[in-house]
Specification:
Elements: E1 2-3, H1 17-26, E2 31-34, H2 39-50, E3 55-59, H3 72-82, E4 88-97, H4 105-122, E5 125-131, H5 134-144, E6 153-155, H6 162-171, E7 174-177, H7 185-192, E8 199-201, H8 227-238, H9 242-257
Parallel strand pairs: 1-2, 2-3, 3-4, 4-5, 5-6, 6-7, 7-8
Length: about 260
């Protein structure tokens, strides 16, 4: 199995990441992609990736970060420097987030496009974060699309937005599916329409616990080992054997990240 988006570089795992990785391996997780959300935890993602077989890193600045206090040129130079590690396979997660941060939309767009351009120049995969910003994401991607982006991008934790899906199908963009598919009926209907060739599975640990662990009395941080619950639910929705889906999603992630 390939957990294509897992924040083992976050504080939630600062004392437990070795045990979490071991537990994941014991449950059949072969690969994990750790994305960055700022320079510091991008560096941590690389550190973890370089110290473990089957773990890879992405570097980038998340749209909810305080861009006003970050010099864009310096950020791009630093991210390019981090990309010299052989374990860095993607730029991300980057994008737009209007859930709480719409006032900074123009700044977000500028930082998103600069990091997107870096990823294209370095021939890295692109992990796109979108929250309540689908219309602007599509406008930016339409305007800045180049053929080299096909098959090299993923809509991480993709919202149930059929306009995004149609664009993804047209441009060969992968769709990241998380634990909410185990309980969100709207997401289940959405996933039914996603081609198997574009599906990725991701825990987004420590967030988005899937059922049945979500309903347990003692709720803990999500972990890569819970990926199987996402796969089982998608298998049910798509009427496909779980083992077959495991192979498809693993192959898709290997293709996207070129690992």
């Amino acid at each position: 199995m390939f957990d294509s988006h897992c924040h083992l570089n976050f504080q939630a795992f600062s004392d437990t990441y070795e045990a979490v990785i071991k537990s994941a391996n014991n449950e059949g997780i072969d690969y994990i992609l750790i994305p960055g959300t700022d320079v510091e935890n991008s560096e941590k993602a690389i550190e973890l990736a370089e110290g473990h077989k089957g773990i890879f890193a992405a570097v980038g600045m998340h749209p909810t970060k305080d861009f006003e206090k970050t010099d864009l040129n310096s950020l791009v130079v630093k991210l390019e420097e981090l990309c010299t590690s052989h374990k860095v396979v993607a730029i991300g997660e980057i994008g737009l987030d209007y859930y709480r941060y719409k006032s900074g939309s123009e700044v977000q767009k500028k930082y998103f496009l600069s990091q997107l351009e870096l990823g294209l120049r370095l021939e890295k995969a692109i992990i796109i974060h979108n929250r309540h910003a689908g219309e602007d994401i599509l406008k930016l991607l339409y305007k800045n699309w180049v053929p080299g982006m096909a098959g090299r991008c993923v809509f991480h934790c993709c919202e149930s937005d059929f306009d995004l899906l149609e664009f993804a199908k047209d441009k060969n963009i992968f769709i990241g599916v998380d634990g909410d598919v185990t309980y969100d009926t709207q997401k289940q209907l959405f996933i039914k329409r996603v081609p198997l060739s574009l599906l990725l599975v991701e825990t987004d640990s420590p967030y988005i616990l899937p059922e049945p662990v979500r309903s347990q009395k003692e709720r803990k941080a999500n972990e890569p080992k819970n990926l199987i619950y996402i796969l089982k639910k998608i298998s049910e929705i798509k009427n496909i054997q779980t083992n077959e889906l495991i192979k498809i999603t693993k192959d898709n992630a290997v293709k996207l990240f070129a690992v």
